[in-house]
Amino acid sequence: MSQVKGLPEGAKIYERSVREVSGAILALVKLAGEKRLFLSRPLPGFPELEEAGAGYLAPLTFPTAQALTRHFPELRPRGLPPGPSFGFGDRIGLATPGHLRALAGARVFPVLAQQSVRENTRTGRNFQDVLASAIFGAFQEGYRGGFGADADHLKSVEAAVTAASLGYSMFTCDPSHLLRSVERLPEDELVARFHALPQAEELAQTYVGKNIPIKGLGRIRFSERDLAAAAVKYLPAVEFAAHMYAALKEKLPAGFDFELSLDEADTPTSPMEHYFVVRELQSREVELASLAPRFGGVLEKAVDYRGSLEVFRRDLRAHIALAKILGGYRISLHSGSDKFSLYPVLAREGEGMWHVKTAGTSYLVALEVAARFAPGLFREIMRLSCERFEEDRATYHLSTDLSRIPELDSLSDEELPQLLEQEDSRQVLHVAFGSILSGRLGEELRRVLIQHEEEYAEALAQHLGRHLIELEVKGNG
Prior knowledge:
The structure is a single chain. By secondary structure, this protein is α/β, with parallel strands linked by helices. The protein has three domains: 12-60, no CATH class; 74-180 and 211-360, Alpha-Beta Barrel (TIM Barrel); 361-465, no CATH class. The protein contains 17 helices and 16 strands. The strands form three sheets. The chain has an eight-stranded parallel β-barrel, surrounded by seven helices. Strand 7 (85-88), helix 2 (96-103) and strand 8 (109-116) form a beta-alpha-beta unit. It is globular and about 75 Å long.
């Protein structure tokens, strides 16, 4: 039991969170169903302190989180060290304790704050909320091992700079809206578009006809058409990424991790395209921490990979070979949740140069907890998710068939968790997260998760732990 004195009556203390600094005891407590930060005496930088018991309470706001990081620097996001890394997205703001329990004993660096502008818009959160949740979750668990914070799928320089000002350490540039489709362009039109580029002549001199040796891959040789296709398709995206990188470098001269996301392109990223994009970024003084290519096969949300493992293995080997030659950055697997068939391949072929992003799977674990402990709420969530599916699926590539989903009214309460195992219903629940979390059902779900926070944390530890075991960075035992 804790030896912390002066707690308000009825406060439950989170034992792992107890720390001492500058003669003060700090701990996370739950009082009347709400988490607060307890301080045995006031410390500089903590706003909104109120007397309680023989100490003080602070709300779990972003300013409080910032104050915590001043006194405990290990809670500040930091850059990725060498080796593999893993992103734990949290759309509700309650998953970090479970993520850290999944991480126990794993040989991988965590990114605990990871959210896109799109996800924030759908859930009514912002970059401050996401980072504060990760900081308080790490504090609650007594975690001191360091973590990153990823402002994910950024489509504007302004959003990137905002995240940088808040303390984010990683920035994922998503220029998919600038990629040009070239696969069906007639030859003459493609060549004409290429020659209309201001840098066309310089590009031709740099690439056309050159034999480029890539250890472990062979050689890359650009024809004029190859170059035209790569330049027309990717140059606007390259220019945008370089602009974002320059703005971040001005804001964060001490350094940061920069990822380029190509995974939402219409076609798989070829080795030639990979080489062209990275060389053009380097010519604009952009240093990559990771690149997310579009892989062959189908990586849909919430379900396992659909495609040939040999195709994935071939693609991965090529991208790793290029990354080793071009700068040693990671290859990033987006939509990485629940891709259990891919993890052993990534573990054995990725040479430790990988990053995996997960997000929606932690939301689905939350729904599993609701199905177990609040079946009436879960039924409401399932019904609304089905109603909203056609609209909410708009930004996702899915093969969901609603006709395959079991009739909700035919299932007993004990059978409801089956809907989180059936692929179609799992995808429906996944993509409707914004419709659920932004309204009344979202508030009710949060209350259930807070009431059953230990069950939620342990379910996350088991499910995300399985990810890390299959990735061979954590033992099975």
